[in-house]
Design a protein that fits this description.
Length: 263
């Protein structure tokens, strides 16, 4: 069996909102949940499940570490590819999404709208990185001269790139995280990179690392035409805790004043 698109939720929690979304995805899109079960048990009974743990990582011959489920988001590609291969399922693209992503548009419509985009990698942000970026220190581990960076909560990758990156992981003993690993090898290769901004509206005020959103508030935002948000929380307590953790007070005020943030 062949699928053009495989939609993968990478999670360590049982997210009710995303469970409902995924249970309503049409049959032409294959849905898989990749779940870190180190702290809780998965509860996605109607969905195809892959556990992100040492046992399954070891099967792939990949390096493991205590925080690998956070650090190595690209492992999700290899776990899913291996899982589908064992089921005799082939694919063109894997879409990876994290549970703290909020989409104002229907996920099926978003996926379909990029079917004619041939980019090997689609993401929200992609650029070269300077030495001040924390993950640039791993560039030498990768055997590369120049680091690049991307953002991993919502990406699309094609099958050939999955195979290429898996081969690089097998040959590279490094703690480099997904963002510098994937972006830097992309930046030094012939694989094409595209941005979701071609069809989706967002900026650092809506889609970022450190400027959180409380989902019930989003409909009141002055920039209501934006399509994707991160990190976005269903519960007020999670939202306020993230503000404190990320020290995001000033950035949230700038957002309210329609001043662009740099994240």
């Amino acid at each position: 069996m062949h699928y053009k698109n495989v939609l993968v939720l990478r999670s360590n929690e049982n997210n009710i909102r995303w469970k409902e979304i995924l249970n309503n995805v049409f049959d032409e899109i294959k849905v898989v949940v990749v779940f870190d079960n180190s702290k809780s048990l998965p509860n996605y009974p109607e969905l195809d499940l892959v556990l992100f743990n040492n046992t399954n990582v070891d099967k792939l011959g990949l390096m493991s570490c205590d925080d690998m489920t956070w650090r190595f988001g690209d492992y999700v590609f290899y776990l899913v590819s291996y899982h589908l291969k064992n089921k005799n399922i082939t694919f063109d693209y894997i879409w990876l999404v994290e549970p703290d992503v909020f989409l104002k548009k229907n996920i099926i419509d978003i996926i379909s709208s990029f079917n004619d985009n041939p980019a090997a990698f689609l993401t929200t942000y992609f650029s070269d990185a300077n030495d001040s970026w924390n993950w640039s220190k791993y560039t030498k581990d990768l055997g590369l001269i120049k680091p690049y960076k991307t953002f991993f909560p919502f990406v699309r990758v094609n099958r050939k790139l999955v195979e290429f990156l898996y081969d690089k992981r097998l040959k590279t003993n490094t703690l480099a995280n997904d963002e510098v690993f994937v972006a830097s090898f992309l930046g030094s290769s012939d694989f094409s990179v595209g941005l979701f901004s071609e069809l989706l509206k967002y900026n650092r005020n809506s889609f970022s690392y450190g400027i959180p959103h409380f989902i019930p508030f989003i409909k009141y935002y002055p920039f209501t035409k934006h399509d994707i948000f991160h990190p976005a929380f269903d519960f007020l307590n999670d939202y306020t805790c993230n503000i404190v953790k990320k020290k995001a007070y000033k950035n949230i005020l700038k957002r309210l004043l329609l001043i662009n943030n740099d994240d």
